[in-house]
Sequence to fold (450 residues):
Amino acid sequence: MNLLDILRFWLIIQLFALAALPLAWRWLAPLPSRGYALAKPLGLLLVTYLLWLGASLGFLRNGVGGILLAWAVVLGASLWLGRTGWQRDVSGRRQLFDWLRARWVLVVVTEILFLAALVGWTSIRSFSPEITTSGGEKFMELTFLNGILRSQQFPPQDPWLSGFAISYYYFGYVMLAVLTRLSGLAASVAFNVGLGTWFALTLTAAFSVAYDLVAALVHRSDASESSALGPEPPAPRSAYVGGLLGALFVGLLGNLAGFLESMFSAGVGPLAFWRWLDVKDLNCLGGPGYSEPIANCLNGSSFVPDRFFWWWRASRVITDRDLVGNAVEVIDEFPFFSFLLGDMHPHVLGLPFVLLAIGIALALLLGKKESGKPGFASHLSLGWVGFALTALCLGGLAFLNTWDFPIYLFLVAAALAVRMAWDRRGLSWGVIGRAALTGIALGVVGIVLY
Fold:
């Protein structure tokens, strides 16, 4: 891997973001950031979706031509749906360009964060670029990537069972294959650069959501300033601090496993505390089911790892118990563990799009009812088009990492319920019913789209 390889992925993501920016700026207008950073995962999702759909129905080939055509369609639709932003209004101004000039600090911070995360994490991967398992599943993931790259139509060929299609939620691997094909890199190189790209997309999306939360909170608490300066007052410094902290907390920090391991190794704390904490290997229990006590386990501890895969403990700090008291493993993996492990697994590939779904929910929460639009479409920017886009993004989660779909479908429906309750100055069964029906409709349409 070299810097040119990294910049190829960076340029492709920027082109996808540029294609989706007018649409994001219009659709996610209630957000203080207008969805600027979220345009990156949105553009990647829309282009990949059109390629996948066209190649599945036989209209497109899974190749560079098909990808470029899908990108052109996304760009055209985005320019049309977001035309109020880039076309001149009655005063001769282009609102999108004026907004970008006024928010140049947000643009610069977002782009620096994205590029630094991409270059930084890919550089870390370059110290250990081997596609080895390390207890993970890189062999399977690279095999999926190669299978998709060698498939002219979708569903892609199953690398293990000739003549059959991949029986897995493979949408994220199609996204990685799109970037790989456009970049011209070998799959083994693109695998590592792709991991850095997903890390950068996750950090910038987390920055965007946290920035919007803080900026919206500050503007809501200062109604006089908001009314004096219009619907988009300047973002406070605290919004940038909050955004960067959001990126830090989501992408770089994990649980307290390392801190607790240090305390345990130093013999800090009574035995009762470690038994209560009940972290595997730190609870002074051993034997079958980890139920037999180890005598004086704190006295013999050291900072030297005492077993193979000792670092795996950080992703299993929660211990469940069956009815007879035996330990049951619970996976509580966090993003930094996943990126450090280096697996391009569906739960990693879905991270930027989970944050996109959270941004959509926040836009619904911050949006206002628009008159002239029927039903729940009055609460969505772009009305029924916004509804379809929401369903497309949520449905994509089912194809990226299936169990994310019901979680964030519920979040979007809950955000709509709160928004309607604010508009009606109270929560009622009617509000709950309409939000539930909207969630069902989004779920059905999301499934149908895929």
Observations:
- The CA atoms of residues 139 and 403 lie 23 Å apart.
